[in-house]
Amino acid sequence: MDFFDECLVRKRLEAEKAEYNSLETGMYAGEQLLTFCNKKLFEGRVSIYLPESFIDMPLEWRRRKYPYENRPPVIFMDESGAVNLCLNLVSAKIGTLNEMLNGFMLVLKKMNPSNIFMDQDMLKAVNVDCAWCEMRVQNLDGSSCCILFLSIVDHELLLGTFSCPNAIKNEWKKIAFEMIKSICEEGENES
Predict the structure, then answer these.
(1) Is the pTM of this model over 0.85?
(2) Is 87 helix (H, G, I), strand (E, B) or coil?
(3) Are 94 and 152 in contact (CB under 8 A)?
(4) Which CATH number fits domain 37-185: 3.40.1000.10, 3.90.180.10, 3.40.190.10, 3.40.50.1970?
(5) Which of 150, 177, 181 is nearest to 47 (CA)?
(6) pLDDT (tens digit per residue) in 84-107
(7) What does the pLDDT read at residue 191?
(8) Domain coordinates in residue numbering, the chain
């Protein structure tokens, strides 16, 4: 195949990928087309859209990756185990989301000064606000992109982290934010 043909094939693939840019249509992570499903968590109190290919992290993997006993109760991963989404719903003294996020960032920086915070902001999910920060975390096998996000759900703190190797961050970052924006407090309008 000559250069012109290669350019045409690449443009065609880029155009095809551009059609898959939402949770409804599916999204590409590298060459893999991900489709999404709505998962209800924490006894149906919270829902979030996740890739259908994500699985619950097996207990032995959880113990290795999160060696402390207070590990998140909800941990999803891709088939390789490299991409993870952790969620926890905890009773905590609730302040503003920004105050809580800044507190978490301070603790994380003190725990590991090599953590580099890249960005932070607020976003609107389905029916809750989320504060988030992105950081680069050093680990045994390189560095990871980690997005920490917080929301208040039913007067409790929803604490989540999305992580993937830095090498594939550009493939996953938009997907991660679309998943975060899909968070919904279930039954908030029920009487």
Answers:
(1) yes
(2) strand
(3) yes
(4) 3.40.1000.10
(5) 181
(6) 999 999 988 888 899 999 999 999
(7) 35
(8) 37-185
